[in-house]
Request: fold
Amino acid sequence: MCLSSSGLNTIKLVIADSSELIRIGLATIFDRVEGISVEGQCSSKDELRKHITEHETDVVIIDYTSKDFEIGVVPEILTLNKNVRFIGITKDQSGQTIVDALRFGVVSHVKKDCSAKEIMESVVETAEGNKFFCGQVLELIHEDGVDLDDVQFEPMSCEPISLSTRELEVITLIAEGSTNTQIASKLFLSNHTVNTHRKNIMRKLGVNNTAGIVMYAVKSQLVSPNKFLFASSNS
Reply:
């Protein structure tokens, strides 16, 4: 099968999923597509990191909910190679979970029960710099009342950031889903003090919302993203 790629060179694709069956199945699909070359199959986030550092890669299609993966690997890899583009491919996720993945740096999203044509098109469109969402994903996002135009991902700076022990405690609690009132209770602080810490943290990190704080917490390994955002799925 030939899908137009607007004159692009061969798309170097990596498949990242803990399930060997899924990896083989996806590789078989892409073998039928002219202009796409499966350059690697990774069964864990460690294998994926290693591959990205050693091989040129255009697109990664990843099940960030499968065993030995987590969404935090996406921003990690983007700090290594900002040109890699990620497609999420999962089984059963809520619209909000998919939106959270987009905030972590996933560009496009499909589901494992989408048609082969949709999955193939997602790679071509993503490689060309576009976003692609299969019909099922768009329906899930729409049901949760989220406007995709409002979902933004901004890679975080790699410059060293000076944070106090108290600020790190606040960041961790924010990432775990605690409200200002809950943080105040746990740390024996006033709501006003917690709010001040939050504002200072956002200023230091250069972010303007809670998602940015969560991204920093995951990137810095203060928390595991699967603990509070994503339901693990052993595919």
